[in-house]
Design goal:
This protein is of the alpha/beta class. The chain is built from 8 helices and 12 strands.
Amino acid sequence: MQTHIMLIDDDALLRRSLAFNLERTGYQVSATASAEEALELARRAPPNLVLLDIGLPGMDGLDALRHFHTDTSVPVIFLTARRRELDQVLGLELGADDYVTKPFDLDVLLARIKVVLRRARPSPAPAARPVRLVIGDLAIDTTAHTVTVGGQPIDLPPREFDLLSVLAMEAGCVVSVDELLERVWGAGYAGESQVVYVHIRWLREKVEPDPHRPRRIITVRGVGYKLEPQEV
């Protein structure tokens, strides 16, 4: 069965061109100009992935994402034309699986689509991954997907949880930005160091007493980050 991608963008030329290239790659594509129409189509024929423009007329991409998450668990990749929107979109932490800025390279977008689809498929946890990680007063249960700091539960979205888990598995050692990209986001994110910087900032806001003077997640300039244990 073909993988079904829903494309929502009010730029008719981009919509036709991208739909053509996605179909040529082997995907089934439904393309619409509005979020309202897309949501109605998705109820009748649920897609495997949604490419969603942020700046739509009528219901915008952010509101559409909320509806997609209410109605279905389909992964969503945001399309955005303005770099300044990115931090806002990511900062809202609404649950978009990725974002791509316009104009984008088709090969880059196809790589991102493959990564997101792969992550969306259920797969058994690696046998070698520790079930419970304890670093000082920080405890991570990778099976229950829970984190506590000083005995207090911390709610983390999936990417931040994975990022903290990788740092915890290498506690006391520096993990490079490139390695974090590879282990948390996948090979399709090579060179996207800004993604790591943004998620580290969000993570510090949740696990550091003072995010501006981090003591737990330490920056090693020019190299990467390391997780230092704090007293219980």
